């Protein structure tokens, strides 16, 4: 089971927030690292910027788009990606157990987040 480190933070009048020291230490964050911030449906995602590749970003967008179970075709259209590339991303996410098949709609496989 994965442990999730949580804490409350306050946003300053200038929009700044301080990441608590235990979380910074767990992530190995040093002074002035570049971070990537993404928002989806009111949830913020923060990650070291240098850890991202274009494929990582597209996988994150795909995971966020799976707010409800969808087919490869639906996801490709929603994210403006080709069906074959969307299928490749889904297969990689399936291997890391982040998505799984939840059934079929005709000949199309329906995927959902795990």
Brief account:
The protein is an alpha+beta fold and 114 residues long. 35% of the residues lie in helices and 24% in strands.
- CATH topology value of the domain at 51-113: Arc Repressor Mutant, subunit A
Which outline best applies? elongated
- Terminal residue distance: 14 Å
**Structural class determined from secondary elements:** alpha+beta
Number of helices: 4
| Poorly predicted ranges | none
By oligomeric state, this entry counts as single chain
Estimated share of beta-strand residues:
15-25%
Number of strands: 5
Q: What helical percentage do the residues reach? A: 25-40%
CATH class of the domain at 51-113: Mainly Alpha
What report would you give on this structure?
By secondary structure, the protein is an alpha+beta fold. It has a domain at 51-113: Winged helix-like DNA-binding domain superfamily/Winged helix DNA-binding domain (Arc Repressor Mutant, subunit A, Orthogonal Bundle), CATH 1.10.10.10. It has helices at residues 21-27, 54-65, 72-79, 83-95; strands at 35-40, 43-48, 70-71, 99-105, 108-113. A three-stranded antiparallel beta sheet has the order 3-5-4. A two-stranded antiparallel ribbon has the order 1-2. Strand 4 (99-105) and strand 5 (108-113) form a beta hairpin. The radius of gyration is 17 Å and the shape is elongated.
Write the layout of secondary structure elements.
Layout: H1 21-27, E1 35-40, E2 43-48, H2 54-65, E3 70-71, H3 72-79, H4 83-95, E4 99-105, E5 108-113
Antiparallel strand pairs: 1-2, 3-5, 4-5
């Amino acid at each position: 089971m994965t442990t999730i480190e949580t804490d409350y933070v306050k946003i300053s009048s200038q929009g700044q927030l301080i990441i608590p020291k235990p979380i910074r230490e767990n992530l190995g964050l040093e002074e002035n690292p570049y971070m990537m911030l993404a928002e989806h449906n009111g949830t913020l995602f923060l990650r070291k910027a240098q850890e991202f590749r274009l494929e990582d970003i597209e996988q994150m967008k795909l995971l966020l788009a799976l707010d409800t179970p969808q087919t490869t075709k639906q996801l490709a259209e929603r994210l403006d990606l080709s069906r074959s590339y969307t299928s490749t991303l889904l297969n990689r996410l399936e291997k890391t157990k982040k998505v799984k098949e939840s059934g079929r709609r005709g000949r199309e496989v329906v995927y959902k987040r795990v």
